Task: inverse folding
């Protein structure tokens, strides 16, 4: 059985129809080919309704109604709303799966807020889930069925990495959670360089964005290490090795390593 098969017949709920919850639900609905199995709730009825329009999901009038109908429910409110959201719910007696998308909230903390029979797990998607090109960290809980459901749900919006230990979520946040922002800055700076050397802004930005995208697609499509790919484009005495020497002198690698470390430490603090 593939992970995708695990979604067959599964009744899936979503609490919180904002950016991330909405992106994941749209991808799940696309993969299922029908919204019949989907139930959603958001305190803003218009937000729930517009998600329902594109996914075919049924809008419920309360979180309780979502829980009553579903096998697994994704929680996608903001972390600061989570305590109120979870504490106010009426949970069914059966062992419902709860997939928390909340950044920085430990599974043990979520467990304190729900009854014992609820099977809790945690994921950390990134913003590229919006376009089906995300990468999501999924916790290995030891509950094989729940882990398979969760993996299948998040494979609909990109790649999934399973983490054996929850402490690793902080480091994952530093790499892939915050990582898109580092690359947006890199795109902007590449374009600035092009403008500095005479390119029109729109041309420079297009070159920068597609260079980052192309490098990512290439690196993901081969078993070759990125260092090997870099060596291939740095010919002796050429332009690229000159530029790489400048990046080394400016501490490009150590800046990225320190950025990941800072994000990871902040994630630990927030938790
Ligand atoms: N965005 C990202 O890139 C990203 C990446 C990784 C993880 N996450 C996590 O994903 C979660 C959602 O983030 P987001 O950016 O999608 O936030 P968002 O756009 O603000 O969406 C959150 C939604 O949850 C709703 N909500 C509030 N209380 C609720 C309740 N009791 N029951 C059901 N829904 C409720 C909010 O409604 P109101 O606006 O009316 O309060 C809002 O529509 C966060 O926990 C965040 O840490 C986000």
Result:
């Amino acid at each position: 059985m593939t992970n995708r098969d695990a979604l067959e017949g599964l009744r899936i709920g979503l609490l919180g129809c904002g950016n991330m919850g909405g992106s994941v639900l749209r991808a799940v609905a696309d993969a299922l080919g029908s919204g019949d199995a989907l139930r959603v709730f958001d305190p803003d009825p218009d937000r729930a309704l517009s998600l329902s329009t594109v996914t075919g999901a049924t809008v419920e009038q309360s979180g309780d109604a979502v829980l009553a109908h579903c096998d697994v429910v994704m929680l996608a409110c903001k972390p600061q709303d989570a305590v109120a959201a979870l504490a106010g719910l009426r949970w069914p007696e059966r062992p419902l799966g709860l997939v928390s998308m909340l950044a920085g909230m430990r599974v043990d903390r979520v467990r304190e807020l729900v009854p014992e029979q609820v099977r809790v797990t945690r994921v950390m998607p990134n913003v590229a889930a919006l376009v089906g090109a995300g990468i999501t960290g999924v916790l290995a809980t030891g509950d094989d069925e729940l882990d398979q459901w969760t993996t299948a749900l998040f494979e609909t919006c990109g790649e999934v990495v399973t983490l054996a230990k929850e402490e690793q979520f902080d480091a994952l946040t530093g790499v892939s959670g915050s990582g898109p922002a580092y690359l947006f800055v890199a795109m902007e700076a590449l374009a600035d360089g092009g403008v500095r050397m005479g390119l029109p802004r729109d041309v420079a930005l297009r070159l920068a964005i597609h260079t980052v995208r192309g490098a990512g697609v290439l690196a993901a499509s081969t078993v070759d290490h990125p260092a090997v790919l870099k060596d291939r484009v740095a010919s002796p005495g050429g332009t690229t090795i000159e530029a790489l020497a400048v990046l080394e002198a400016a501490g490009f690698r150590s800046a990225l390593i320190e950025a990941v470390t800072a994000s990871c430490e902040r994630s630990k603090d927030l938790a």
Observations:
- Residues 245 and 251 are 10 Å apart (CA to CA).
